[in-house]
Amino acid sequence: GKSIWQITPPDRAFAAELHGFAWLDDLAAVGDGPARKTAQAWIAEWIARYGAGRGPGWTADLAGRRLIRWISHAFLIMRGQEAEATDAFMLSLAQQSHFLGRRWQA
C-alpha cells in the first residue's frame, strides 16, 4: 500500500490533519500488530522526509498537536521497535519540543 506521505493533500485542512497526526489516534484505537507497524513506519517516514524542522507541519500549532499525539501513543510507537528507530523518535520529540518552545506565546 501507499504511504500516507505519498498522498497529495487536497487542501490545507487535510494537510494539517496529516502533519498533526490525527490519524495516529485511529491506529492506536485499533492497537493490533499491523496498526502498530503502520504507525511506526509512517512516523519513521515523516522523520526522514520532514524531520529537519522546516516544510510542511512546522508551525507551532501542528508541532504541538503532533507532540501531544506522539507522547500519548509513545508506548504503541516504541513497542517492538529497533533501538535505532526509537532513538530517532526520541530525538525528533526533543527537536520538536525545542522548536515549539522557541515559538510558544502565552
Describe what this molecule looks like in 3D.
- About 70% of the residues lie in helices and about 0% in strands.
- It is an all-alpha fold and about 110 residues long.
- The protein is built from six helices and no strands.
- Helix 2 runs antiparallel to helix 3.
- The longest helix is centred in the last third of the chain and has 21 residues.
Strand-helix topology:
Layout: H1 12-19, H2 22-30, H3 33-50, H4 60-72, H5 74-78, H6 83-103
Helix pairs in contact: 2-3, 3-6, 4-6
Q: What are its keywords?
A:
6 helices; globular; 106 residues; mainly alpha
Mean pLDDT: 95
Shape descriptor: globular
Secondary structure class reads mainly alpha
Counted by DSSP, the helix tally is 6
The total strand number stands at 0
Element order: H for helix, E for strand: HHHHHH
**Beta-strand share of residues:** under 5%
Organism: Roseovarius nubinhibens
Protein name: Heparinase
Could you give a quick summary of the protein structure above?
By secondary structure, this protein is an all-alpha fold.
